[in-house]
């Protein structure tokens, strides 16, 4: 029985030695001192107090200090902000520190509990812990002198008018007025565009068309081999005459479109077949390189003259009849 007790005792001591050996070696290699302090031991409700946590490690080679995880609120205190852990010192001594700003809205004598720092040996993986001391902070209310009489609530006070409080609005308003005046002056002084009056032709469209046809005939273009130019000039003279005499946009239309647009003009529509024949020959000569015969050239010119003569305005026809009558009277 005694032998079993001795064996168990030896086993327990060996086990304790194995567990405690990293801690003892860690303690031998370095010395860790942790401190928690506040910049004030007494505050009023809502004021802030700085809590500084620091760990001083001598011979810090191969050690890692793990700072305590301070919750957002604890023991009547609330965390306002916290800084990142800072490191200072040299190879022999390292100082790790962190600042936490606290506030409290409960009056009383409150404690800041002890915080645990973990010191980890990087090589062997051993861990040791160090604790700070408990701190006390008095949170006081605002002192009120109850011996003095209560004062009445003050009425609302009006603040004096200050130009600089409204300078931006004045600047915007003045800018708008200046821009408006500038636009008014600009448009008022801008020269007005003169209305271009339509140029009244010196001679009637009928006379102008006949003169141009006679001039084209005298140039003898088709006789010189310039058939395309001959028919281009011929159709352009007719189209310009239609525009001036009947307000038909003939110069901008194809032959088929032109034949469609002359339908409402009765006097012109009466020459529809003759105009279609002329335009057909002209289009073939201009675009299909057709070579009409000399008789067809003369026929096209004669058709153009007859179309112009047939659509001659009534006033000019009457004047022509009168002149013809006078010539007959003069004859013996």
Task: Name the features.
alpha+beta, 332 residues, elongated, six-stranded antiparallel beta sheet
Structure in words:
It is built from nine helices and twelve strands. The chain is of the alpha+beta class and 332 residues long. Among the domains are: 108 residues, Immunoglobulin-like (Sandwich), CATH 2.60.40; 119 residues, no CATH class. The strands form three sheets. Strands 1, 3, 5, 6, 7 and 8 form a six-stranded antiparallel beta sheet that branches. The longest helix has 28 residues.
Topology summary:
Blueprint (H helix, E strand, L loop, with lengths): L1 H28 L1 E8 L3 E3 L3 E11 L4 E4 L6 E2 L2 E6 L3 E4 L3 E11 L4 E5 L3 E6 L5 E5 L3 E6 L26 H23 L15 H15 L7 H20 L8 H7 L4 H4 L2 H16 L6 H17 L3 H17 L2
Parallel strand pairs: 2-12
Antiparallel strand pairs: 1-3, 3-8, 4-10, 5-6, 6-8, 7-8, 9-12, 10-11
Q: Nutshell version of this structure?
A:
With 332 residues, the chain is α+β, with helices and mostly antiparallel strands. Among the domains are: 33-140, Immunoglobulin-like (Sandwich); 205-323, no CATH class.
Low-pLDDT residue spans = 11-29, 315-332
Order of helices and strands: HEEEEEEEEEEEEHHHHHHHH
- Please bin the fraction of helical residues: 40-55%
Distance between the termini: 183 Å
- pLDDT averaged over residues: 79
SS summary, helix count: 9
Number of strands: 12
How would you characterize the largest beta sheet? 6 strands, antiparallel
